[in-house]
Structure formats: C-alpha cells, structure tokens
Design goal:
Chain B: It holds the Pfam family ABC2_membrane_3. The structure holds three protein chains of three kinds. Chain A is an alpha/beta fold. Chain A contains 14 helices and five strands. By secondary structure, chain B is of the alpha/beta class. Chain B has a four-stranded mixed beta sheet, with helices on both faces. The longest helix of chain B is centred in the middle third of the chain and has 31 residues, at 171-201. Chain B is elongated. The chains are: A alpha/beta, B alpha/beta, C alpha/beta.
C-alpha cells in the first residue's frame, strides 16, 4: 500500500509537469464539445427538390406550393422534363425529383386516380426516408383538401358516406422542442472522455516500455496490480476532471442540466473509466511501440464512435452487430448518460447497463493483468 | 536520384520489417470499413414500443396487430396503465408508447372518429420524429382499409423510387464516408508519427547532417505511406464489390486518381503536424484527438452539412475528406465522370500543393 | 566465503537457438564479478535470467539464496539492476527519482530523506537536486542511475554495460562508486566491453557462443593465456566464436 503512494506521487508529478500535454488533454476536448454539437444536427429540413411540372394546372401549382411552404423542402428549380429533374439529383443539386405528369388535373377528375412520380437520392438513408415520409404525408394531406373542395364544389351529391377515421395525437416526452443538442452533447462528451482516457493510459505505459524504465520497475519487488493501479488512478482523476468540465460546458453553452442525480452519473463514470482504462492497459500490453498503441487505439475509438449509438441507432443494426456492440463499454455509458441527463433515470433504471460495464471492466482488466508479465 | 532511391528503400524496410505494425496498417482500416459497411444503417426499424390498451375491443386488436406486423415496430409489452410509462421510458426499454383510450372502438363505430395517443421518447428527436411518422402512416393505411367500401375519389398516388440505393442500406452512405475518414486519419497519423519518431530517437539529426536535400527526406517519408494507402484502397474496393455489393460504377482510374490526390493531401497535413510536434505523443494527440471528431462530423456523411450553422459550413470546406467524400459518391456509386468531379479534384490539388509547400518551407526553416 | 550467486547448468533456449548454455559458476559476497563477451555471446540473456526478468529453460540458479524459478519476487528485494538503456525518469528531478525508487522498495519517509541527502552528497549533486534528469550530462546520469539502483541497499547489484558512451574520467569516478559499494559488502555483477574495466574486477568470466569459455581472476587469466593484457585474452577467445555479433 505504501509503495502505491510513491507510484501515484510519481505519476501525478509527471502528469502535472507536462503542462503542454495537460492543456491539450483538457482544452482540445472542451473546445470540441462547445463546437461540434452544432454540427450534429439531424433535423431534416432543406431537402432540395427539383420539380418537373408537365401539367401546369391550378392543382399542380397548388401541390407544389404546398410542398414548398411545408418548411421541409427547398425548391431548387423547375425543369422541363423528368429526365432533367433526375439530372439535378444526379449532380447533387437536388435530393429529390418530383414529376407531375401531363393531364394530372383532368385525369384526377375523370379517372379519380393519377400518379405523381418521385425519385429520391437514397444514398443518405435518413434523408431519403424522412424526405419520402414527409412528401407522402403532404401529398395525402393535399389529397384530402382537394377532395373536400371538389366535393363542396360539386354541391355534395350526398357525399359518399364519411368513412370512419382514426386520428393520432402525438406528443414528445423528455425533449418537447426536439432539440438535437440535448441528445448529442452528453454522447459527444462521452466520446471525448473515452478518446482521452483510453489512449493516454495506453501511450503512457508504452512510453515506459520504449524508454526502458519499465524494465527498471520490473526488477523491483513491486506487485503487478499495485503498478497497474498506480497507472490507472491518475487517468481516472483526469477523466473525472474532464467530465466535470464537460458538464459545465453543457450547462453554460447549451443549458443542459442533468435531470437525474449527479451521484448516479459519477458512480457510473467511475465504473466506465475503470473498464476503459482496462482497455487502454490491454492495448499497452499488446503493443511494443507507441505507433502500435496508436493504431490500436485509433481502431477501437473509431469503432466505438461509429457503432456505440452516438451518431447511428444501435437498434437498427443487424443482430450480430448488436451483440458485438454490447461488449463496447461506451455503448452502455452513453445510454446511461442520456437516460440520466434527459429522463432523470435513477440507479434502479440503469442497473443493467452499469452491471454490464462492471463485467466488461473486470474482464478487460483481468485480461490485461494476466497479459502484463514482469517475467518474459 | 540514387540517393533518393536508397532512402526510400530504407523507409520501406522500416515499415515492412515490423510485422505487427504492418498487420495493423492493413488489417485495421479494412476491418473497420467492412464492419461499418455491414453493421451501420440509418434506417430506423425494430423500434421497441409499448401498448396501453384501455379499450380492448376488436378495433384496437386489429390496429395493434397491424402495428406489430410492421418491420418498424417491435411491441415489447402491453402495459396495464399509463402510469407505468415513465418507468419504462426511464429504463430505456421502449422508444414509444401507443395508448388507446377506453371506448376507442365504440367511438370509431358510432361517431366515426377516435383518437389514439402516441408518446415518443424524444430524447433522440430524429428517431422520435421518424417513428411517429411511421406510426401515422400505418394508421393512415388502416383508415384507407376502413374506407375501402366507400371508394375514395380523386386518389393521388405517389410512386416513389429510391435511386442508387433502393433497399435503403447503410453501406452506400457509410462506406464512402468511412473510407474518407479512415484514409485521412491513418495517413495523417502515420506520417506525423514516423517523422517525430526519428526526431525522438535522434536519427533525424543524422539525416539532416547528410548531404541530402530536405525534400528528399520528406518524399521518402511519404512514399511508403502512399503505397500502403493505395493498397488499402484497392483491397477496400474489392471487398466492397464482393461483400457489400458496391461495385465501382464509374472509372476506376478516376477514382484512384482522386484517392491519390486525397491521400497526398492527408500526408501533407501529417507532415505539417510533425513539424510542430516534439514528441510522438503530441503528434498523436494532434492527429487523433484534434482531428478525429471534427473530420467525422464535417465530412458530411453523418449529418447533412446544410443543416449546420454557417460558420461550420465554411469550416467544413477546409476539411479535405468532405471533398473526397463527394468524389467517391459520384464516381463509385453514381458512375459519373470527370466532368462532375473536376471541381472537387481541383480543390484537393490546391490544398495538397499549399500544405506541401508550407510544410517544406517550415522544414527548411527548422534546419537553419 | 559466503556464496550469493550460484548457478548450475543454467540454460536458456529460444526455439532451437541456445542463447545461454549450461552456465555454472558461483559469485561470493562482496566480489566484483566481471561478465565479458562479444555482442551476441549471451551476456544479457544470462543477466536477465539472474534478475528474474527472464525464465530459464533448464538448470538451477539461486540468487541470495532464492530460487530463480519460484522466488523471483523475493530475489527482487535483494538485488539492484541498472540496464543498458538509461532508466531514470527524464521528466522527474534528481531528488524525485531517488524518492520514487526508494519508495517502491518500501523505504520509509524519514529513511528516504536521509538516504537522499547522503546520495546527493556522495555524488556531489546537492545543487542539482531539483534539476530535471533530462538536463543532466550523460556521465552524471549514469552515476545517478547506479546510486539509485543500490538505494535500497541490496545484496547484489547487476550492471549491464553501465559505462557505455561515458568519458574516461567519469568512468573512473563510476568505478570508484562501484568499489565503495563493494567495500560495504555489496556484490557487483557487471558486464562491460571495456577491457581496462575488466582489470578492475576480482574475477572475470568470458562468454563465447553462449558458453563460459574462461573464468578466473584477471591476473591468472593473463598468465593462462600468456598475454600481457585482458585485451589479448579476450581477443584470443572471442575470435573463435562462430556466432555472429548483433
């Protein structure tokens, strides 16, 4: 226990002495936390639309006007033919092409039925999905109006009896203004803490390997687990400091105050840091040079960022991928963060995720300790 | 020239001698792209929802079975009362709740109108909007079923065609995006670290005292990374074609040219970074901590750039991967030719020349 | 005389390559034992086995009475080690390095303070106590490194080419430190490439191709090979080597 004190003293001295590194470690993430949530906005608006109106009737004009005035779509231009409208999609000038065929209005009246053609650039799935859904509901809304008007106009021929109708009253809980920042800030904070903590702990140990000081430590009677704890604690402290500063940035910059208790957040944070430091350690035991440690950390951090549900929904992944994601510590901590911050979830609510984090942490650390040998 | 070749050979030896690093250089980027290509999708489906049915009649049963039949929803459970909702949301078990008030079916039959309540967990606004939309569509469908007897006049039928990606898979969007991200970061990191490493080991001084032009040192440092990246690109393209069903629709030559331009630009960034960084750790912090998330977000494959504040839109113009992403999408997925990507290629060329010149000059300054 | 290092047919194989082959020797307490050999002869491998950094393939060895297979952690309490690579922390000061290494050997606070003062005095580094180690000249670093390796007063200290790249004057001072330690009863096990340093040792062993080719006092070895200096003795033996140096 006494030796641990000396180890910690040394680690903290080294950490605090390197002011430049310390500044980068703390400031770079915070600046990103201030700016990046602004870039992460999924609210779909401004869907560019190219229209080929081959009908030029009042109905077609009103349909176009209704689409444009909905606020979701931005008219990028009229084209003479559908082919030209598709050309605009191809050139990325529009996301969506709409063709109202010739005789649209007259066929609608005469045949009670007429198609309009829509082509959506589906490379970006979300935009395509939402754009299609919005357009569909606008058109069906418009359809209702036209029908109603036409029926009034043709002096109700005893109107085909009103069909029964189910209507949907929807409400949004926990984020009534659908503010995307509320959702992104906690998750981005997690990714920043993750990158810093996991990478730094890995680099730190590999640096001692490269400079040869670890060999000196290996001939001392120091216990493996003491050495490892000595390496972990400083980064845990650093992680907690960064996290706290991040919460403050979220509060000052975005007005986000956690609904749940801070105590739940911090307990989860410590369990999370424990598991991520285990990963850092594991990376360190497998790499001989800083270059290797870097490649490996980059690999894991990138995968975590892309797959832990920060930017994309885990639910929509295939089952095998979801199974893999459960082994990623950030996926659990991000869920905890969002639940506690936005919904005020308590311990009992987040217990399954917290438990998963603890298990992952024990496995990673155990593996790392076994793999870190003082004797080769 | 002979010198240069000797030197480049030394750099290749460094890279190829170390099997572990080599494995990481090739294996890890490829693993990422394949993994993301298969796993990522921004289609929202299988959302877990809860149903609270106070009415329990034929209509609600029919509507519920219609909802559960849709691929978008997965009815997790039926709750007895709305008071349990908050708890279920807090545990994160459900994304949405559907509530049928008492007497729902009777209302519908007798008054011709009934309202169901839908509560979405809007902590993720995008998902909330999307699934509410899906549900509304299902209900609309149900309404048309009801109205089947009373034939609907004046039906406008939108015929929707999803271009380039009819099944709305994630891969066509994510593979180019991740390619841009991974190639850029790997190139930047490898270059900056390789140079700073020589500084740390002190071997850079030996090179600097040799009668060797600085530009040769730089070129020979960049050569292996360029080669590795091009090989990586080719492997990625082959794998995308075989496993992800994403063949290169346009000209392969054009795509490779664009990639080489992009790689050179990224290498130049790494070069610039290595000049200001003193330790490997600093170089890595710069390339990873500093560049990873901004690149991820400002490339445009995760979030639409046109949604961002103007300042960030301007900033995104400085991110090379943004332009490369456009090039891959147009050439690889849409099969367009040079006439539609020349502007992006030109921008990348400009960036590359500018960055390279600056770093070369900086490198010389340090020598004096 | 008390034996502190005892080895019996100690062997290390890496696959089919035998780095150290059946080494058998004893080192007595307080002795300065020189461990010579060309590059690649197997010196470092042998030393790493004795320090508990590398597990032997076969044979026996005890260090300060502890077995190298089963009691490596006990061994570590009784030995000091100074590696070829400089192994103090660059970004800690002189005093902080001493404090750290003394601390992890379990010394108490007051003992550490006393020891620090004493060491700084012996090394005449009092003024540099608060200087970062990276700012010291190499020679000072090496001397400091040695002092730190025996800060916990071990029975045996292993020195792996401790004077590489150091000027002759500093090397001389370095050996003064070694003698001082030896006078206090510390056993010194040292590898070196400098033949003049070999002359300073009580006994010298010369390894060729993983085998101990000669082991005796410098005077007797010179007599045995009929040569005037250790240089000649070493050359005589080393040129028979079949293995290539590294």
């Amino acid at each position: 226990m006494k030796t641990l004190g000396f180890l910690l003293e040394k680690e903290f001295r080294q950490l605090l002495r390197n002011r430049q590194l310390l500044r980068t470690l703390l400031l770079a993430p915070l600046i990103q936390l201030i700016i990046l949530p602004l870039a992460a906005d999924y609210t779909v608006k401004n869907i560019g639309i190219a229209v080929a109106d081959n009908d030029h009737s009042t109905t077609s004009l009103r349909l176009i006007e209704k689409i444009v005035s909905s606020g979701y779509f931005k008219l990028q231009g009229y084209t003479a033919s559908y082919h030209d409208a598709l050309g605009m999609v191809e050139a990325d000038k529009a996301d969506l092409a709409l063709q109202i065929p010739a005789h649209f209005e007259s066929d609608l009246v005469r045949e009670d039925k007429k198609q309009v053609y829509v082509a959506i650039n589906a490379i970006e799935g979300t935009k395509a999905n939402l754009g299609g859904a919005y357009l569909n509901s606008i058109i069906s809304d418009f359809n209702e109006n036209v029908r109603a008007q036409w029926q009034v106009g043709s002096a109700s021929t005893g109107s085909p009896e009103e069909a029964p109708q189910v209507s949907v009253a929807s409400s949004n809980w926990y984020n009534i203004f659908l503010n995307y920042h509320l959702y992104m800030v906690p998750a981005i904070l997690v990714t920043l803490v993750t990158a810093m903590v996991a990478m730094q702990s890995a680099f730190n140990i590999v640096q001692e390997k490269e400079s040869g000081t670890i060999e000196q430590i290996n001939v001392t009677p120091i216990k493996k687990h003491i050495f490892i704890i000595g390496k972990m604690v400083p980064f845990m402290v650093l992680g907690i400091v960064l996290f706290t500063m991040g919460l403050l940035v979220g509060w000052i910059g975005y007005g986000i105050v956690p609904l749940g208790s801070l105590w739940v957040l911090y307990v989860s944070l410590i369990v999370y840091l424990f598991s991520m430091l285990g990963l850092g350690l594991l990376i360190a035991t497998y790499s001989g040079t800083q270059q290797q440690a870097m490649s490996l950390s980059f690999f894991f951090i990138n995968i975590f960022n892309m797959m832990s549900g920060v930017f994309t929904a885990v639910d929509s992944m295939p089952a095998w991928a979801q199974a893999i994601v459960t082994t990623f510590p950030p996926s659990h901590f991000i869920k905890i963060m969002r639940a506690v911050v936005l919904k005020g979830s308590g311990f009992s609510d987040i217990l399954p995720w917290l438990g998963a984090l603890a298990v992952i942490g024990i496995v990673l650390n155990g593996w790392a300790v076994l793999n870190y040998r003082k004797t080769s | 020239m002979r010198q240069l070749i000797t030197f480049i050979r030394k750099e290749f030896l460094h890279v190829f001698r170390d099997r572990k690093t080599l494995l990481m250089l090739f294996g890890l980027p490829i693993a990422q792209i394949v993994l993301f290509g298969f796993a990522l999708s921004n289609e929202i489906k299988n959302s877990h929802i809860a149903v609270v049915d106070y009415s329990k009649d034929a209509v609600t049963t029919k509507l519920i079975s219609k909802i559960s039949g849709s691929p978008y929803f997965n009815i997790q459970r039926s709750l007895a009362g709305a008071e349990e909702l908050n708890a279920a949301f807090k545990k994160g078990n459900i994304k949405m709740a559907v509530i049928f008030p008492a007497g729902f079916g009777d209302d519908l039959i007798h008054t011709g109108k009934a309202t169901m309540q839908v509560i979405a967990d809007a902590s993720d606004p995008n998902q909330a909007t999307t699934i509410t939309n899906y549900l509304t569509n299902i209900v609309n469908d149900f309404n048309s079923d009801l109205a089947q007897d009373a034939s609907q006049p004046m039906q406008i039928e939108p015929e929707v065609q999803m271009m380039y990606n009819p099944e709305l898979r994630g891969a066509p969007n994510f593979v180019p995006g991740v390619m841009a991200l991974v190639l850029m970061l790997v190139c930047t990191m490898m270059t900056s670290v390789a140079i700073v490493r020589e500084k740390e080991l002190g071997t850079m001084e030996i090179l600097l005292v040799s009668p060797f032009k600085p530009i040769y040192i730089i070129i020979s440092k960049l050569a292996p990374n360029l080669l590795i990246s091009v090989v990586n690109l080719i492997i990625i393209l082959v794998l995308s074609d075989i496993f992800l069903d994403l063949p290169v629709k346009g000209s392969l030559l054009l795509l490779v040219t664009g990639t080489v331009l992009f790689i050179m630009t990224s290498l130049s960034i790494g070069l610039l970074l290595s000049i200001s960084a003193k330790t490997q750790q600093a170089a890595m912090m710069g390339s990873l901590m500093g560049m990873m998330l901004p690149t991820m977000l400002l490339t445009g494959f995760l979030f639409p750039i046109e949604n961002m504040p103007v300042a960030l839109q301007v900033l995104s113009n400085l991110v090379p991967s943004r332009w490369y992403f456009i090039i891959i999408k147009r050439v690889m997925l849409k099969g367009l030719g040079f006439e539609s990507v020349w502007r992006e290629m030109l921008i990348l060329t400009g960036m590359c020349v500018l960055l390279f010149t600056i770093s070369l000059r900086q490198f010389k300054i340090r020598l004096q | 005389m008390e034996t502190v290092i005892h080895t019996d047919r100690l062997t290390k194989r890496f696959g089919s390559f035998i780095a150290a082959n059946e080494l058998t020797f004893d080192v007595a307490k307080g002795e300065i034992f020189g461990f010579l050999g060309a590059n690649g002869a197997g010196k470092t491998t042998a030393m790493r086995m004795l320090c508990g950094l590398l597990a032997p393939s076969s044979g026996k060895a005890t260090i300060a009475g502890f077995d190298v297979y089963t009691q490596t952690e006990r061994i570590k309490n009784s030995i000091g080690y100074m590696s070829q690579k400089f192994s103090l922390y660059d970004d800690l000061t002189v005093a902080e390095n001493i404090r750290f290494y003394a601390g992890i050997y379990g010394m108490s606070g007051p003992a550490i303070r006393a020891k620090t003062t004493q060491l700084l005095e012996e090394l005449q580094l009092q003024k540099e106590a608060k200087t970062l180690v990276r700012e010291l000249p190499l020679g000072w670093k090496q001397k400091l490194s040695f002092s730190v390796s025996i800060v916990h007063e071990p029975e045996i200290v292993f020195l792996d080419e401790p004077t590489g790249g150091v000027d002759p004057v500093t090397r001389r001072q370095f050996w003064d430190l070694i003698y001082a330690a030896s006078d206090k009863g510390v056993t010194v096990f040292v590898t070196t490439h400098y033949m003049d340093e070999a002359e300073y040792c009580n006994r010298v062993s010369i390894m060729v191709d993983g085998v101990i080719a000669a082991l005796d006092s410098p005077v007797r070895l010179k007599g045995q090979f009929g040569s005037g200096s250790m240089e000649d003795v070493f050359y005589e033996l080393a040129r028979k080597a079949k293995r290539k140096g590294d």
